Amino acid sequence: MAEPSKTTRGIIGWCLFDSGMSAFNTLIITFVFSVYFARGIYGDATAGSVVWADTLALAGLVTALLSPVFGSISDRVGRRKPWLAVFSTITILASALLWFAEPDAAFVPTALALVVIANICFEFSNVFYNAMLPTAAPRRFLGRVSGWGWAAGYIGGLLCLAIALVGFIQPADPWFGLSKENGENVRATAILAAIWYAALALPLFLFAPDAPSRNVPFRGAVCDGLAKLWQTLRQVRRYGNLVRFLLASMLYRDGLATLFIVGGLYAAGTFGMTETDILLFAIGLNVTAALGAFVFGFFDDRLGSKRTVMMSLIGLIGFGTPLLFVPDQLWFVIVALGLGLFVGPAQAASRTFLSRLAPADMQAEMFGLYALSGKATVFLGPFLFARMTESFDSQRAGVAVIVVFFALGALMLLTVRDAPNGEAGTSQV
Q1: Residues 134 and 176 reside in one and the same domain
Q2: For residue 252, which of 333, 310, 305, 171 has the smallest C-alpha distance?
Q3: What is this structure's pTM?
């Protein structure tokens, strides 16, 4: 079967998709709508944040359970774009409908239902987007294209956030005649995220190549996909190298997830940073992460994905350890920005590594299992952070948990064999 043609505009389209979808994560899940939900809709910042976190945990559970299923079915169908189009469209529409979630407790169920639907479909989209990497990029450029995509995601999310702040959140008179009464200016950022996502997703569908169709009827693909997934789980020892990688990535991705969740708390609680300080710090951290993902993509193709991930983990440990001891806010910012350089490549090179390790006919299935492993123990890091902070009455002790996760992930990664010659679609036992 002929390999789909790779073009420059196809690669750009694939990278821009990441830039578009990152707006959903940045504006809705992390920075803007989450705060609006807790303070405005729920009416209690603390209790509302708990409900928000529990809701996202539920969405994560659904994602973890169903991602391998959809991935396996997709592998039997062959094409990724139809799946990506369906789940992206649902995410975009659900995001836009958040405009109707007014700052009133009566809208809590509506807002949470839309967020659950949008977030689940967003995570499913990630499975098929990642599985398109080997068809979008030439094999010798997998690493740098993955890095470019991750960097584009960071930059796209930040640009959309900047537009939201400048045009809707901060000005006394928001754009388009919107009023701050009834939360109109904040609710409009959900529409902004939806439009941003839709506009930057379009080039992928127009220009990026897709895997060829296998001409399998959908009902047959569902049956075959479920059977293949069950067979994979039953014969997991055949994929020992892949399993070891999934376990390694689960450990260090738990560390990264915990870093994202508690980083702001550490900055505020230990170093007294204000909300404005933390926002500016987050922007700087995202810039360094984007820069790292872009530069290390070249190392990925030259040195191999495993070495690139290992270098990133060594960097995370090397900069993460001093963060436990820095004396003041200035040194915290300097060291943390250095750590940020390795956050992007750790994630981008992991995506490339899985693309190179997974058999060509199991890409989406393996990325589904990758999503499962990423969600299975994501609660553990924050839980251990809280327990260590309580036990030692110090957030520094809690943050030490993150460094331990990085170290354990690196040790497990040592047991994983790299893909021969850096090629994609190679099954290893």
Answers
A1: yes
A2: 310
A3: 0.81
Q: What are the mean pLDDT values of the chain's consecutive 10-residue runs (429 residues total)?
A: 63 93 87 83 78 79 80 74 94 96 93 94 88 83 86 90 87 87 90 97 92 68 65 70 89 85 73 73 85 90 91 95 89 91 91 85 76 72 77 82 93 87 45
Q: Are residue 89 and residue 164 in the same domain, yes or no?
A: yes
166 and 277 fall within a common domain: no
Cβ within 8 Å of residue 245, ≥6 positions away: 353, 354, 357, 413, 416
Contacts within 8 Å (CB) and 24+ apart, 310-314: 310/410, 310/413, 310/414, 311/342, 311/345, 312/342, 312/343, 312/345, 312/346, 312/349, 313/252, 313/342, 313/346, 313/406, 313/407, 313/409, 313/410, 313/413, 314/410
Same domain, 243 and 330: yes
Which CATH number covers residue 269? 1.20.1250.20
Residues 190 and 132 in one domain: yes
Summarize pLDDT for 58-116 with one digit per residue, the tens. 887 888 788 777 777 777 676 889 889 999 999 999 999 999 999 999 999 999 999 99
- Does residue 44 form part of some domain? yes
Final residue of a domain: which of 183, 203, 234?
A: 234
